[in-house]
Design brief:
Elements: E1 3-8, H1 15-28, E2 32-35, H2 52-62, E3 68-70, H3 81-94, E4 101-103, H4 108-111, H5 121-138, E5 144-147, E6 152-156, E7 168-171, H6 175-184, E8 187-189, H7 195-206, E9 211-219, H8 223-234, H9 241-246, H10 250-257, H11 262-268, E10 271-272, H12 275-288, E11 292-297, H13 302-318
Parallel strand pairs: 1-2, 1-11, 2-3, 4-7, 7-8, 8-9, 9-10, 9-11
Antiparallel strand pairs: 5-6
Helix pairs in contact: 1-2, 1-13, 3-5, 5-6, 6-7, 8-11, 12-13
């Protein structure tokens, strides 16, 4: 059975809202949770983008069973891998047995802010492999000095480490990244049921491992209102990943969103009260072999979505 998760979309909620949303998700019976790690929202209309590692610490203390997964953190530009290793180790201690680390090569939207540029995807993937190597060395508990092609570590040691191994998921939007995921991580993260990506992951040694996906809905009692909300907050998502990885700021994503219509968004985002539409949007992930799928609810009505999930949607999805 595919695990159904709840996506904490940090770009559209305040820090206190997100902590409360995690409690709602746990009480509603979601199998796990993801949370986006951004410096900026996708578009200014979303209005938020808090530091999610502070939120993860808070969420770990107000939830008891909900598994937590950053979806995803980028340990190559905005964060140094040694710092990510420390953050992840601390989280694994705060949420024992329910924290995994999702990693990726990032988007220009968030990484350019530290003034180190945004190299091509081939360089970013090489940086990511090196970053994971550094993190795994630090998690062994010894002093680490490392001289790499992209990163240096000078006599660093982590003094607070979990007993259990920290599981790493690597995000992939193409075959090259899927090969990195199979080589450097324990599971694959990808946002669409792309057969090429999954095949590349399996061929590179990932066959039989977890595949974690994420999709978006805009549930609500009024379909027309939901479509308008989805266009306002999520119209940017219609563009392909190669475009989204390179755009610089929320204003660029807004220009992309301005070219999109309600009908275009509604083709990819189930809008309104029809739960069968949501089920149909999840089915391609199930058919493609995903083991876990997280659902992002667009807009402020997270409580209503959690209630309808608990009452009706969960059983429909688990019947898949």
């Amino acid at each position: 059975m595919v695990a159904i998760g709840y996506s904490l979309m940090s770009e559209q909620r305040t820090p206190t809202d997100l902590v409360a949303d995690a409690v709602l998700a746990e009480n509603a019976g979601f199998d796990f949770s993801t949370i986006s790690d951004h410096f900026h929202p996708w578009v200014e209309a979303q209005g938020h983008s808090p530091y999610i590692w502070s939120l993860l610490g808070a969420i770990s203390q107000v939830t008891k069973t909900l598994p937590l997964l950053p979806y995803v953190t980028v340990p190559i530009i905005r964060y140094h891998p040694a710092v990510v290793a420390q953050k992840a180790a601390t989280m694994a201690l705060l949420a024992p047995g329910r924290f995994r680390l999702g990693l990726g090569s990032g988007e220009n939207l968030n990484e350019h802010v530290v003034g180190q540029g945004f190299p091509g995807v081939d360089v970013r993937q090489a940086m990511l492999e090196e970053a994971i190597e550094i993190m795994r060395e630090l998690w062994k508990g010894d002093y680490v000095t490392y001289r790499g092609d992209y990163f240096d570590v000078e006599r660093a040691r982590l003094f607070d480490l979990p007993e259990e191994e920290i599981q790493i998921g690597v995000a992939a939007g193409g075959a090259q990244a899927a090969e990195v995921a199979a080589k450097a991580g324990e599971f694959l993260i990808t946002t669409s049921p792309d057969a090429e990506v999954i095949e590349a992951f399996n061929k590179a040694g990932g066959k039989g491992r977890a595949i974690v996906g994420q999709t978006t809905v805009c549930w609500g009692p009024d379909e027309q209102a939901a479509r308008k909300l989805a266009l306002e907050l999520h119209g940017w998502s219609v563009g392909g990943w190669k475009i989204k990885a390179e755009l610089v700021g929320p204003e660029s994503f807004q220009e992309l969103a301005d070219l999109v219509t309600e009908e275009m968004v509604a083709e990819s985002v189930p809008c309104g009260p029809d739960l069968d539409k949501i089920v149909e949007s999840i089915k391609p992930f199930v058919d493609a072999g995903f083991t876990e799928v997280a659902i992002t609810q667009i807009g402020p009505d997270q409580e209503g979505f959690c209630k309808i999930f608990e009452a009706e949607l969960a059983s429909k999805l688990r019947s898949l």
